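Appendix C reproduces, verbatim, an entry submitted by the partner laboratory led by Prof. M.T., so that reviewers can inspect both the input and the predicted structure.
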Amino acid sequence: MQALTAKEESAFSALRAQQVILWSAPVLALVLLVLFVAFPGFRPPMSPDMSAAEVGAFYRDNTALIRFGQVGFNLFGILIVPFFVLIMVQMQRMRSESHIYAFSYLTAVVAGATLFALSNIFFAVAAFRPDRDDELLLLLNDLAWIVFIAPIGMLVAQFVLLALAVYADDRGAPVLPRWVGHYALLTALAMAPSAGAAVVRDGPLAWDGLVSFWLRNGAFALFAVVMFFVLRTALRRQAEQEAT
């Protein structure tokens, strides 16, 4: 049997690393789902119209679960980034004059992960001293929710950049199917209205509303599930190409 060249070994090693990241995603998704269910502020989502006294009572009555949830999100939430980096790697394989879409995509992913981590910190700070004045707890709670829900620009950019990269890949056998671009744009449209959570306190656009909370987070989660299967197919095709 002919020994693999250094270039071939590097290619197969890269494929193995991508497979590890891909198949770790379902495990991470299960952990995040447990944390989502465990966090009492999501069952149901807290209302922006809660008074300072109600918010203070919430943090004092649920201190242990809030701390558990936010420590967990801080530990595991950032681990979703490699999954989206895997998408970026596939974007780099697409036919394009440059990798500008892929690198811009990575920037949007990192920005989104950073804001998610900041929201965790605000929730955690509020639960760190639940005996604070209720007005201070209300302020920290507002910061946590608005940072978690409202800054949607980097997520919209993320999906739009993916769509542009897919559309630019005009080869006969594209890396990702063209419908992924359409689906990415639809996901961006579904999530964009949640920017209103920064100024609206009731209705579907409020941070606990049907659009800003449920549609936003549901669309993001569904996109990740769909992309798992898309990436699995793309990696299988890449492995076949590398083998030949």
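The chain has nine helices and no strands. Additional entries are available on request from the coordinating office.
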